[in-house]
């Protein structure tokens, strides 16, 4: 018995040494040395999860990354749970992020900011629209703002899933630009974008602010009427909807998504992700994904992303103050 | 929309395509299996399968995912009936009389009636879908915050009938459930309530964790305490139902198919609410309410018919408006969008063949499922012959796995264990469990809708009188609360008169 045990131990020891040997040499030469883990800080089904799974699939299908990749879902706290988890991982893990990585902190709901991580890229954006019922008296965004300027409590505005998110702040910013007392606005908060659409279709609210992808089909079917979008230029397929800029409001409001790695990544590791991600966003499969989801490419590499996040932090700080959510 | 015969036939042909039949078979079987395991519900099953649907034809993907969904409705009640641990929220109601039937040695019959009830409920709902999809979608839109608030209140009023005989304990359990439902971020203000700086709590306590804890873990602990007295005296009994049982179940099944279907269509309700409401309605209108909770076969038939109908109904808002009517359809929506399909008001006009293929596949799927489920009965009842020292550890393992898949968080394990102990205490102290679960399921939505409706209607009285729907629901709620009291008063009077005579 003892003899067997000894030989077994010997075998294990040999195997282990062999493994650590190759592992060691790889480590010095090229990253990655291990399987890649993509953290979607949300449950399956949403935009974060969709982005993570699409990246996994395309990285793999197009042979951009040879290592195995897994998507792990870490829902909770508006990204907080997933990002806390990311913080303790090594460079083989990265997570999807969005403006919540900035606003959670500003709203006092989290200690984490983008500075606790390594921004790797900004990938996509959606645009945010304002919609009303098809028989509504409002035909453009300005009319809505005009009425709100006279009486900020006269309209009920639907938004999901929380105050301080992009859908909410995009509307606040437009209203502020027009001189509306935004602290008085009456928002009704729904659990999801789908609930907001239902509330508007059923005439339970007057105005809704939501992403274009959630409203587009309904608009085309004449079930609701989009009256403004926060994009730079009119959106393809929705040329009849004026941007805020065309209506004289200086506003561009991207609802972006990006990726970030754990803190303290080496330059070499960052360069690896810059290279693979820039290849990823050029693939046809990625372009198709964008079209299917009504997303737009908003690619920035790690350096640009870091600057962008800094800029966004200032911007959000001001917006949240204006909305009366922070002092 | 009317029934477009040509599209219907085309859809039937596509649904009968061998590949699609295979997907229905795989989906239905998979759904049945995950439905049976505590915590693993249809939403998880669909989410796990999303990568497989990449590259699939969107119609087939939809057929597969739908089959998983209603398959889970069939499967969910299996574990409710056999081991008193519901597979997911909509299978809770099946424990009320299903498990007592097992104790009475009628497990086989309980399983059979639940499969048959699911089939009939499902068929009702499919017919409803074919004839009424569009008008019902329009009706569902009328449900604003006020209507939802009152619907949830009406559901909650069922607690009176669920707690009959131990009213005070029932209300205590309900109060605990309502308190638990306030944990998490408050949507209307963004304030964190009772989260103790634990980010995992910010989205509230998942009622599925509580269900698994109270039922599965609680049941295991309870049986552990009684291990000496526990004997394998459970007989499987006959598999086929008797004529008398069919007579008792027939009308409850027929009544509750449409009820479940209608509730399923509402984007804010779902299978859990549907099956609970069906159970309590049957109990209240029954001539012999005292039989309920002790193994009344109609108490199994009614909720089972209802929850399967609700799963079909929840596809209506998804396919006509692009709005998911339940957690599972939300995941399905995410998956089909990835495939380039965007369900919405244009889907019926632009790709009717897809809608009709789905509807037809549901029809085929339900028939396949009833066969699978009845064949499985002889295998499943073997569970009852499993020695407790094997069975209960196994249930514990499944409970933990199921819990982990809900949000991949270890915090949920602690919550699971805590509720296991609470479940045990409730059993020992003879508290009814259903009021706690029901309050937890409806509590948060009820509160949010109440607050939104007060903003929308400015005053609480306006909320109650906002529309014909709210007035009807208000009256139903009052009736539901007072019915048992009126009944006992009438009976008292009768017996007094009888005494006097």
TrEMBL record, chain A:
Pfam families: TctC. Residues 1-20 form the signal peptide. Keywords: Receptor, Signal. The keyword Plastid does not apply. CDD domains: PBP2_Bug_TTT. The keyword Transmembrane does not apply. InterPro entries: BUG, Bug_dom1. Belongs to the UPF0065 (bug) family. This is Tripartite-type tricarboxylate transporter, receptor component TctC. It comes from Piscibacillus halophilus.
UniProtKB/TrEMBL annotation, chain B:
The keyword Transmembrane applies. It comes from the Bacteria. InterPro entries: DUF112_TM. Keywords: Membrane, Transmembrane, Transmembrane helix. Pfam families: TctA. The chain crosses the membrane at residues 21-40, 46-70, 110-133, 145-163, 170-187, 207-225, 315-341, 361-383, 390-407, 413-442, 463-486. Residues 21-438 form the DUF112 domain. This is Putative tricarboxylic transport membrane protein. It comes from Piscibacillus halophilus.
């Amino acid at each position: 018995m003892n003899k067997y045990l000894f030989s077994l131990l010997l075998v294990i020891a040999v195997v282990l040494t062999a493994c650590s040997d190759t592992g060691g040499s790889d480590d010095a030469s090229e990253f990655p040395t291990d399987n890649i883990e993509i953290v979607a800080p949300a449950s399956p089904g949403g935009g974060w999860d969709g982005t993570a799974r699409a990246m996994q699939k395309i990285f793999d299908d197009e042979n951009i990354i040879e290592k195995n990749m897994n998507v792990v879902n870490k829902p909770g706290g508006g990204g907080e749970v997933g990002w806390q988890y990311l913080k303790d991982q090594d460079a083989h893990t990265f997570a999807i992020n969005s403006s919540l990585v900035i606003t959670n902190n500003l709203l006092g709901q989290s200690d984490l900011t983008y500075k606790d991580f390594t921004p790797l890229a900004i990938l996509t954006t959606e645009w945010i629209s304002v919609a009303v019922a098809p028989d509504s008296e409002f035909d453009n965004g300005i009319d809505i703002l005009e009425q709100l300027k006279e009486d900020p409590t006269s309209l009920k505005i639907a938004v999901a899933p929380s105050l301080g998110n992009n859908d909410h702040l995009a509307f606040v910013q437009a209203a502020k630009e027009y001189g509306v007392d935004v602290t008085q606005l009456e928002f009704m908060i729904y659990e999801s974008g789908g609930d907001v659409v239902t509330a508007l279709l059923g005439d339970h609210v007057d105005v809704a602010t939501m992403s274009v992808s959630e409203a587009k089909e309904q608009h085309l079917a004449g079930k609701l009427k989009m009256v403004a979008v926060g994009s730079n230029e009119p959106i393809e397929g929705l040329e009849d909807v004026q941007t805020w800029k065309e209506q004289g409001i200086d506003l561009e409001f991207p609802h972006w998504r990006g990726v970030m790695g754990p803190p303290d990544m080496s330059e070499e590791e960052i360069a690896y992700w810059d290279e693979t991600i820039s290849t990823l966003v050029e693939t046809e499969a990625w372009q198709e994904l964008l079209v299917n989801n009504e997303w737009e490419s908003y690619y920035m590499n790690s350096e640009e992303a870091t600057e962008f996040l800094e800029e966004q932090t200032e911007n959000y700080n001001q917006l949240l103050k204006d909305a009366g959510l922070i002092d | 929309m009317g029934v477009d015969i040509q599209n219907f036939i085309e859809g039937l042909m596509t649904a009968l395509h061998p590949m699609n039949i295979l997907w229905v078979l795989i989906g239905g079987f998979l759904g049945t299996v995950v439905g049976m395991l505590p915590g693993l519900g249809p939403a998880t099953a669909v989410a796990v399968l999303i990568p497989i649907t990449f590259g699939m034809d969107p119609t087939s993907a939809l057929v597969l995912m739908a089959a998983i969904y209603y398959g889970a409705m069939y499967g969910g009640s299996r574990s409710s009936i056999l081991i008193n641990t519901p597979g997911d929220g909509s299978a809770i109601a099946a424990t009320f009389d299903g498990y007592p039937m097992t104790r009475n040695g009628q497990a086989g019959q309980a399983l059979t009636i639940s499969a048959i009830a699911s089939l009939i409920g499902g068929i009702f709902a499919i017919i409803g879908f074919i004839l009424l999809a569009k008008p019902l979608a329009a009706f569902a839109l009328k449900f604003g915050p006020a209507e939802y608030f009152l619907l949830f209140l009406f559901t909650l009023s069922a607690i009176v009938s669920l707690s009959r005989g131990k009213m005070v304990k029932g209300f205590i359990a309900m109060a605990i459930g309502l308190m638990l439902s306030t944990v998490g971020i408050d949507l209307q203000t963004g304030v964190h309530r009772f989260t103790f700086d634990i980010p995992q709590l910010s989205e509230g306590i998942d009622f599925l964790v509580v269900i698994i804890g109270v039922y599965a873990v609680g049941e295991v602990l309870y049986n552990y305490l009684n291990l000496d007295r526990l004997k394998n005296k459970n007989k499987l009994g006959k598999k086929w139902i008797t004529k008398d049982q069919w007579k008792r179940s027939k009308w409850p099944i027929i009544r509750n198919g449409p009820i479940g279907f209608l509730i399923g269509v509402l984007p804010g309700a779902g299978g859990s609410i549907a099956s609970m409401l069906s159970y309590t309605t049957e109990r209240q209108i029954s001539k012999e309410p005292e039989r309920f909770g002790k193994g009344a076969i109609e108490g199994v038939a009614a909720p089972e018919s209802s929850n399967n109908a609700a799963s079909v109904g929840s596809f209506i808002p998804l396919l006509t408006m692009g709005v998911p009517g339940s957690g599972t359809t939300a995941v399905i929506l995410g998956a089909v969008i990835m495939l380039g399909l965007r369900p919405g008001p244009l889907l019926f006009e632009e790709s009717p063949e897809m809608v009709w293929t789905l509807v037809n596949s549901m029809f085929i799927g339900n028939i396949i499922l009833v066969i699978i489920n009845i064949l499985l009965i002889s295998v499943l009842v073997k569970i009852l012959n499993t020695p407790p020292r094997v069975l209960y550890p196994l249930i514990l393992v499944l409970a933990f796995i199921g819990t982990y898949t809900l949000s991949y968080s270890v915090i949920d394990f602690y919550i699971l264990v805590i509720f296991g102990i609470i479940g045990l205490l409730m059993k020992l102290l003879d508290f009814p469990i259903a009021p706690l679960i029901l309050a937890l399921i409806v509590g948060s939505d009820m509160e949010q809708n109440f607050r939104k409706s007060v903003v929308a209607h400015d005053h609480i009285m306006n909320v109650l009188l906002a529309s014909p729907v709210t007035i009807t629901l208000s009256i139903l709620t009052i009736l539901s609360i007072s019915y048992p009291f009126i009944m006992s008063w009438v009976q008292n009077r009768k017996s007094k008169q009888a005494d006097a005579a």
